[in-house]
Q: What sequence folds into this?
């Protein structure tokens, strides 16, 4: 009887980060009132750019921001807290 080593098989869905961690590639702007609900309940949020996802991480200072979300946010009237 002989043994054989099988090659590693990629099991991640397409389009995910392949760096070995679950850190998002960029962060999105979402309604403030929905962030805690998503983090606790696992519900999905909709970003300004239309991306839909559950909140799993908090951005750190200097984290990359979705350019489309940033453009939309900067075009919103001042004083709109998004709640």
A:
């Amino acid at each position: 009887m002989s043994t054989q080593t099988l090659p590693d098989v990629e099991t991640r869905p397409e389009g995910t980060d392949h760096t070995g961690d679950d850190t998002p590639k960029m962060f999105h702007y979402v309604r403030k009132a929905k962030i805690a609900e998503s983090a606790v309940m696992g519900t999905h949020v909709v970003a300004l750019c239309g991306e839909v996802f559950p909140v799993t991480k908090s951005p750190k200072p200097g984290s990359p921001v979705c350019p489309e979300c940033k453009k939309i946010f900067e075009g919103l009237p001042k004083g709109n807290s998004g709640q």
